[in-house]
Amino acid sequence: MSSVSEIPAIRSRKLEITYNIPISKTKKFWDELREGKIYATKCKKCGRLYFPPVADCGECYSSEVEWVELSGEGELLTFTHIIVRPTSFQDQQPYTVAIAQLKEGVKALAWLTDVKKKDIKIGMRVKLVPKVFEDGRVAYEFKPAEKKE
To answer: How many Å apart are CA 102 and CA 134, to the nearest integer?
Structure first.
């Protein structure tokens, strides 16, 4: 039986990459997220709705898009629990990533929080909500939707 050390290899150093992504055309999304609102873009030419927002339509290639506020209400389509985390998430506890179909028709991918693993069910109602981190970064996540009585 061979061990890992017998395999010809060169040990590499840890590589961390930080990307600076220009957001001038989608800045409204980030600004509104910070204010507690979730926005998508809708192509004025073909009507396709995009989340996360895009500056140009991938369907008809038009650059004429308008902003549409989303309710954030959706239904859970699928999820997975991440135990073995990527290097950039090593400081995080294991977490759940989910995809939900939002009421407006777009699918969204985000972390699912504030729910026990055993209580997550396909078809459950979720809400996509903004999240502001202590360092000022913004993101969005799913939370279980409030039950209507």
So the answer is: 27
pTM here is 0.81
- pLDDT attached to residue 39: 98
CATH domain 72-149 topology: OB fold (Dihydrolipoamide Acetyltransferase, E2P) (2.40.50)
User: Which residues, including other chains, have CB under 8 Å from residue 38's CB and lie 6 or more apart?
Assistant: 32, 51, 69, 70, 72, 128, 129, 130, 140
Low-confidence ranges of the chain (pLDDT < 50): 149
Q: How many CB atoms lie within 10 A of CB 110?
A: 20
Please tell me whether residue 61 adopts helix, strand or coil conformation: coil
R_g over Cα of the chain: 19
State residue 92's pLDDT score. Answer: 84
